[in-house]
Amino acid sequence: MAASDTERAQQQIDEIEALSSIYGDDWCVVDEDEKIYCIKISDCLDQPKWTLCLQVILPPGYPTAEPPIYQLNAPWLRGQDYTELANSLEEIYVQNLGESILYLWVEKIREVLVEKAQSSDPEPDIKKTTEEVDEDDGDDFLLDYQPIQEDQIKMLNYMTSESREDEEVPPIHHGNPITDRRSTFQAHLAPVVTTRQVSR
């Protein structure tokens, strides 16, 4: 028998209370009504080198029918590191369908951070100010191209005046459509290295 909305809501409340007591100040309620939470995770308690913020939104169907919606935030987390960690979290969800999984996610992330700290990976650049980190967030998927340092008006003029015919359109990969409650979603992915490719 499927869990009722009341049962799911109680499971969410129980899980949030447990996580709050386990993680203390590292656990943060962003929006209680919208069920948005955030937890700061690090490789160790004393002098952390690697840290990451996991933000989750608990949909009404969680944990029995829907996974949490999540976002991983760290200035060093991109590319292959992001993909591997996201895949690990999704694998945990699949292996524990219908169960509360946030604790498992947090501990998996901590395990990855500890491994990074013990490996030969160089430490992340922790000298950045908060403002610099915020600016970096915008260019995560633009590889080495950093339009932040360009004057925005010049950039727009350049894009509109340049001929776009010589710019190769990147291959677009289409994911399998997923239907959920009469809504269909499909992911589309294309590797781009210039803003002109994005426009095309």
From TrEMBL:
SUPFAM superfamilies: UBC-like
Any single Gene Ontology cellular-component annotation: cytoplasm
Region (Disordered): 117-138, 161-186
InterPro entries referenced in this protein's UniProt entry, alphabetically: Impact (IPR023582), RWD_dom (IPR006575), UBQ-conjugating_enzyme/RWD (IPR016135)
Domain RWD residues, every copy: 14-116
GO biological process: GCN2-mediated signaling; regulation of translational initiation
Gene3D superfamilies per record: Ubiquitin Conjugating Enzyme
Record PROSITE patterns: RWD
The name this protein goes by in its record: IMPCT protein
Lineage: Eukaryota, Metazoa, Chordata, Craniata, Vertebrata
Gene name per UniProt: Impact
